[in-house]
Amino acid sequence: VAYGGLVREPLLSLPRLGKPELAGVLRARLETSRLPERLQAYVYQSSEGNPRFALTLLDHLLAEGLLARAPGDGDWELQGRPQDLEETTPRELARTIEFEIERLPESEQRVLEAASIPTVAFPAWMVAAALDEELVTIEDMCNNIARRVPFVHRAGEEELPTGTRSAFYVFSHSLYRDVLYRRQSPARRALRHTRIARRLRDLFRGEEALIALDAACHYEAAGDWTEAITMLRVAARRAIELRAYGDAAELEARIARIGANLPAAKPQSGGIAAENNRMQTPTDEAAAPFTGPAKA
Question: How far apart are CA 254 and CA 140, in angstroms?
Answer without folding.
Answer: 39
